[in-house]
Amino acid sequence: MDRREFFKKSLMAGITAGVAMTFGDFRKVFAGKVPLQKAPGPFDLVAVKDGEPVQMFDKAIESLGGMKNFVKKNQTVVVKPNIGWDTSPQRGANTNPNLVKRIIEQCYNAGAKTVYVFDNTCDSWSKCYENSGIQKVVKDAGGKLVPANSESNYQEVEVKNGKKLKKVKIHELILSSDVFINVPVLKNHGSTVITAAMKNNMGIVWDRGFWHRNNLNQCIADFAGYRKPDLNVVDAYRVITRHGPRGVSEEDVVLMKSLLLSKEIVAVDAAAAKLFGAEPANVPYIKIAHEAGVGTMDLTKLSINRIKM
Amino acid sequence: MQLPFLKKIRIVVSLIFFIVTLFVFVDFTGLVSTRLIRALLYLQFIPSFIKFIDTISIAAAGFLFILILTIFFCRVYCSTVCPLGTLQDIFTRVSKKFHIKKYIKFSKPQNWIRYTILGILVLVLCFSSIFLVNLLDPYSLAGKIFTNLFRPIYYIGNNLLSRIFQLFDSYTVYSVPINIFSWPPVLFSFSFLIMIVLLSIYKGRWYCNTLCPVGTLLGFISRFSIFQIRMDESPCNSCGLCAKECKAGCIDFKKKKVDFSRCVACYDCFKACPEDGIGYRYSLLAKGSRKERKEKAKNAKALYTIPDALRPLHNLGALCVKKNNSTDLSRRNFFKTTILGTTAILSAKTLIGRNKEQKGISAIPVTPPGSVSIWHYTSKCTACHLCVSACPTRVLQPTFLEFGWSGIFQPKMNYHAEYCNFECVKCSEVCPTGAILPLSKEQKSTLQIGTSKFIKNICIVVTKHTTCGACSERCPTKAVEMIQYLGDLMIPRVDEKICIGCGACEYACPVKPDKAIYVEANSYHLKALKPKTKIIDKKKTIKPTDDFPF
């Protein structure tokens, strides 16, 4: 990994006028401690309703000043959708492929060097990638779909403020890339009430069993404090309302046609919970993260841009 | 009539069969279509024979084709279709290249061993058991070597390549996990490979002509083939060049005799002969045919004297055949009772042998969807491990003695390795013996191969009072559902009626060392109810609001 990273970094430095860049990378590695960039524009959160995923995303990102505020020229980007299940897009178990495609396109438009897409899937990864429709759109948009099924691609990191989660193996691309865009899909979850942004992070770690064994909600909140995505895009177009997170049939799905966008992972989950008809305080991991100061679930304290298409 | 091109054809055909078969066994990308796999394995003698007993259809008549071919041209199967035969030829060839052993001397046939083994196998098959078949069938042995040895090596090479590609930021070659859950199949394959390497170097086709049941049967038929490879009285001058080339050691050049029963029809001798003194000859017109016939009669007599020692066994076999010829129903009943009898003893043994403290382990191993019942499966599977290679999730893993001695090395659904993909029916498509019968995805979605059992007292929700739900999360039918336990804390509950036994819950359960949820095998596969899709309580469903709820 060191060699690989070195290779990548030096290459990047050679191509770009890299002084500022290299510094930026260096900061990203310790991102947990470094305060995030100031949000562009006045909005902390953008919520869009009643549109198609692509149009809703375009509107939302525009109101945050466009993708160029998140992705700089020649940066490497990780787009992390939920591709956990071997199901069709209609079943709503995975992130909407059209949305993923649009995000990748926007990243490239902003000047991204490479956009990586991966998920440590639950079902067999190659089937998930294919049947979710994401393999095709990533290829079409020119992104790089990366298999995340090998432990050798994961590196152990320390979670400094973690209560239960002290050490965790995370995918090397999260460490080596400049920008991390979290693109979960909002769904019901049998044991954590809902799954959205914070829980989607389980797809960048190797050993999820440890989380399940050691207070799942606490681990989710611990990890949210370790590495905050640079942008969270919550897909709430098709929402699984029961039998989550996999769903059994299309009858579990409600067409909600919504989308949430924010840099703040706790806030975006709180808004997602509200969309789902749940109080954020009743979703244990949101509450724990809020109390630990990872972010806020109090939406009244945020400036929200509400867009109806 | 010298036909030197026959050797070339034989080499090309055998290499095509060998390379494609090998690739099918090591490939993990599913590149070879199931239709091609089926066509390729259609001619494999024992798998086809076993499938034919049950189905009696053209689709499984590959072995009949081989029989007809043998009646005409001797043991062509052994030098073309059989992957183990070609594997041995490769070793023999390499050893000759490096002058380890220059030639294989003519030796006497080990008829006693050959026909005893064949007799026992036929008898065993009459009793619908697979014992020894899965240890001696050449195709299945090659399959075990390919799956348990060559496949991991191929994976290691692939994974190294994938690391190299990653250095250049390319992910087109992806790594594949190499997890070995049971070592005995690997050790067996390894020791067998060593044995076959040494034998093929020093004794040529000794395995094929001594232990292999297919070799013995086809060799026996070859004695009466219409075209046989014979030496002529003239122009043969007993120079011995043909015998020097013969890898079966079946040419007695001093007597100008070829042992048809051991000749594997490789045609190496055709090319070696400078005089056109050896080749395919029409057996009835062969020179000195009267003498030959006498010899044949003597041979045949010798043959019939051998089973004398096995007379009681032979009688049993005859009894079996008699039963076969009566009505279909009685045949079935007979088979069923014998199978039930033998396996009941075996399963009883496993049950008794089961440690009471061993929680979370099915009493009998879970068999793959399409295998009908443990009895059907264990009496048909020759443990070629093709399903193990083909399974995209690698849930199918070889076992050692979990199916008893007669089912040695047969694969099972190992839910500690992975779980069965809901939409996949690959194993049922590739199985050449009919141990796993073809299934549609629709049929599979409600086929219950086992049911989940929840061991509440070791579940994390009970022991730690924290939420988990790993089992329910992955359940494709939601047979494992989270229900209220204490306050907001949720706990799994299993609805066995809709459970299909895919093992997703067992695989995902993070409890160590024993899992808190596991699949108990159905000895007979059953039909599960369709998962609930109708919305029962409309009030509880979430409706999208007109305005933002925040």
Q: How many β strands of chain B by DSSP?
A: 10
Low-confidence stretches of chain A: 16-40
Rg over alpha carbons of chain B:
28 Å
Give the number of domains of chain A. Answer: 1
Give, in spatial order, the strands making up the sheet with the most strands of chain B: 1-4
CATH hierarchy, class of chain A: Alpha Beta
> Which second-level CATH architecture of chain A applies?
3-Layer(aba) Sandwich
Question: The biggest beta sheet of chain A, please?
Answer: 10 strands, mixed
| Most extensive interface | A-B, 62 and 51 residues
State the separation between the terminal residues of chain A, measured CA to CA. 45 Å
List its traits.
heterodimer, A: 309 residues, alpha/beta, Rossmann fold, two-stranded antiparallel ribbon, B: 550 residues, mainly alpha, Alpha-Beta Plaits, 2 domains, two-stranded antiparallel sheet
How would the blueprint of this fold be written?
The complex is a heterodimer of chains A (309) and B (550).
Chain A: H1 2-15, H2 19-29, E1 45-49, H3 53-63, E2 76-81, H4 97-109, E3 114-117, H5 125-131, H6 134-141, E4 144-145, E5 154-158, E6 167-171, H7 172-176, E7 179-183, E8 185-189, E9 193-195, H8 197-200, H9 208-213, H10 216-226, E10 231-240, E11 253-262, H11 265-276, H12 284-291, E12 304-308
Parallel strand pairs in A: 1-12, 2-3, 2-7, 3-4, 7-10, 8-10
Antiparallel strand pairs in A: 1-11, 5-6, 8-9, 10-11
Helix pairs in contact in A: 3-4, 4-6, 10-12
Chain B: H1 5-26, H2 34-41, H3 45-55, H4 62-73, H5 76-80, H6 83-97, H7 111-126, H8 133-136, H9 138-167, H10 183-202, H11 206-210, H12 213-222, E1 227-231, H13 241-245, E2 251-252, E3 257-258, H14 268-272, E4 278-282, H15 289-305, H16 311-325, H17 328-353, H18 374-380, H19 386-390, E5 396-398, E6 411-413, H20 426-430, H21 441-444, E7 447-454, H22 460-463, H23 470-474, E8 480-486, E9 489-494, H24 504-508, E10 517-527
Antiparallel strand pairs in B: 1-4, 2-3, 5-6, 7-10, 8-9
Helix pairs in contact in B: 3-4, 6-9, 6-10, 7-12, 7-16, 9-10
